[in-house]
């Protein structure tokens, strides 16, 4: 005789060592990272979420955005302001404020602010770790919208070398432009 019984999930007890995390993008003490002309503010790190995900507020000025890359974790973008061009597996899509874009793990992608206005988006990476890569290769800046200093050609070459060397440690592969 078949059982129609539903098994109940057993949840672990509440971990009282974990605390509520409440933040906002302009809160004092947050980490603002300048990277490839953009500014990334870490709202929630893996330390805040037991490594489950990180949440990053991204300020992308006109012309900004990372080059093509891929990584072995899920990534979701929620556009709050502006419009950007996203390339996913070679196909370009325009993403506008109010839309959400999800990139599955390992898929080649990039995004670019092709407009003449700033783009603001929230980026969720699951599991966490991408925020550590950004901190390792970026430079600290003062606020959520402070642009990083424009690097000299020599500094840009040094940045590319460092990012390329560190990318595998953070489960990321930097790809060449097609």
From TrEMBL:
This is Cupin domain-containing protein. Residues 58-125 form the Cupin type-2 domain. Pfam families: Cupin_2. It comes from the Bacteria. Gene3D superfamilies: Jelly Rolls.
């Amino acid at each position: 005789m078949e059982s129609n019984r539903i098994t109940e999930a057993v949840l672990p007890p509440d971990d009282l060592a974990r605390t509520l995390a409440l933040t906002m993008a302009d809160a004092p003490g947050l980490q603002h990272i300048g990277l490839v002309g953009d500014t990334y503010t870490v709202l929630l790190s893996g330390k805040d979420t037991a490594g489950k995900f990180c949440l990053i507020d991204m300020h992308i000025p006109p012309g900004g955005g990372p080059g093509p890359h891929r990584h072995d974790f899920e990534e979701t973008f929620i556009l709050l302001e502006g419009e950007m061009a996203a390339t996913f597996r070679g196909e370009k899509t325009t993403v506008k404020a109010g839309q959400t874009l999800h990139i599955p793990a390992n898929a080649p992608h990039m995004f670019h602010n092709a407009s003449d206005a700033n783009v603001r988006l929230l980026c969720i990476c699951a599991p966490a770790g991408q925020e550590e890569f950004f901190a390792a290769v970026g430079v600290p800046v003062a606020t959520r919208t402070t642009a990083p200093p424009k690097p000299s050609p020599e500094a840009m070459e040094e940045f590319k070398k460092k990012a390329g060397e560190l990318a595998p440690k953070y489960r990321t592969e930097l790809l060449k432009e097609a």
